[in-house]
């Protein structure tokens, strides 16, 4: 878990520094990292970007209800929503609606334009939007240390 915790926080860490922190020599450390990548524990590496500085300071969540809960309607919605770049997350959920979308946008005018695209998707019969006023906590990875306590 120490390798994963460290890489999750500091994806650009050198192998030598990673090995030092997890008490391994460099060669076994890089072997373990490669194995974690091959086995799918590490999906990718990236940078956490500042959305506001890049012009995407408006975040909204949209609940979507579909007219039918059949696999063809789900598949059609999924394929359509994948083509809307401002939708940064899409989750099929259980409960009172079918999908929860997270959008990152430059402003409310852009929201209105994208909302028109979403509500016109085949099968969409109802939507509710929640505009984020303040982000209290951001996803910065999996709580690996917390999981050890469970």
Keywords:
alpha+beta; 6 helices; four-stranded antiparallel sheet; 150 residues
Write up this protein.
The protein is of the alpha+beta class. The protein has six helices and four strands. The protein has helices at 2-9, 15-21, 26-38, 71-81, 108-119, 144-149, and strands at residues 58-66, 87-92, 99-105, 124-131. Strands 2-3-1-4 form a four-stranded antiparallel sheet. A hairpin with a 6-residue loop joins strand 2 (87-92) and strand 3. Helix 2 (15-21) crosses helix 3 (26-38). The mean pLDDT is 95.
Q: Which structural class matches the secondary elements?
A: alpha+beta
The averaged pLDDT comes out at 95
Number of strands: 4
The coarse silhouette is: elongated
User: What is the end-to-end distance?
Assistant: 15 Å
Helix content: 25-40%
Nearest-angstrom radius of gyration? 20 Å
Which residue ranges are poorly predicted, with pLDDT under 50 across at least 5 consecutive positions?
Answer: none
Number of helices: 6
Order of helices and strands: HHHEHEEHEH
Strand order of the largest sheet: 2-3-1-4
How can the largest sheet be summarized?
4 strands, antiparallel
Q: Strand portion, in percent? A: 15-25%
């Amino acid at each position: 878990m120490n390798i994963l915790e460290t890489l999750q926080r500091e994806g650009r860490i050198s192998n030598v520094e990673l090995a030092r922190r997890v008490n391994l020599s460099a060669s076994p450390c890089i072997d373990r990292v490669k194995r974690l990548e091959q086995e799918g524990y590490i999906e990718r590496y990236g940078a956490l970007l500042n959305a506001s500085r890049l012009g995407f300071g408006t975040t909204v969540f949209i609940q979507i209800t579909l007219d039918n809960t059949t696999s063809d309607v789900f598949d059609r919605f999924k394929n359509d929503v994948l083509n809307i770049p401002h939708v940064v997350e899409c989750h099929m959920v259980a409960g009172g609606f079918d999908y929860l979308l997270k959008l990152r946008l430059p402003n409310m005018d852009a929201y209105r334009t994208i909302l028109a695209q979403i509500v016109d998707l085949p099968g969409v019969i109802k939507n509710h939007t929640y505009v984020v006023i303040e982000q209290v906590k951001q996803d910065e990875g999996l709580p690996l240390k917390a999981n050890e306590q469970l």
